[in-house]
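ok so for the tutorial part 2 we go from a plain amino acid sequence to predicted structure tokens. step 1 is just haveing the sequence, like this:
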Amino acid sequence: MRVIVQRVRESHVTIEGKVNGKINQGFMILVGFCDGDSQEIIDKMIDKIIHLRVFEDENGKMNLSLLDVQGSILSISQFTLYADCKKGRRPSFIQAAKPNVAIPLYDYFNEEVLKKGIHIETGIFGADMKVSLLNDGPVTIFLDSHELFYNQ
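step 2 — the prediction. this is what the tokens look like for a chain of 152 residues:
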């Protein structure tokens, strides 16, 4: 599982000219899955994301989590996080999970974030989405479950 977390002041996703999801302060998250990802990995990743201390405290230090600031998440499915550009100029996406695997994982991710008490908005898996955001900082963090949980 790969995730790009962007701290935002606001973000929204538009599909076919209509806003599908919109948040104010929080994280706009791009989420990608590969074969072998599981609910256990998703649970660990959610815990990592919601406890990342990247929001500023009263002293201007990045010391507060999404939970601390009562922020929201805009979750966008993003298979291109598994682009392999080692050969040639056209990326290969062979490592990305196929929709029959990725859709249930994406749905589980979003449901579990909600169960943690985080307001979540989403895009639509596989849709042509236009994502807008006001990146705060900017703060952008790349998380890879293989680096976080397998190489310890």
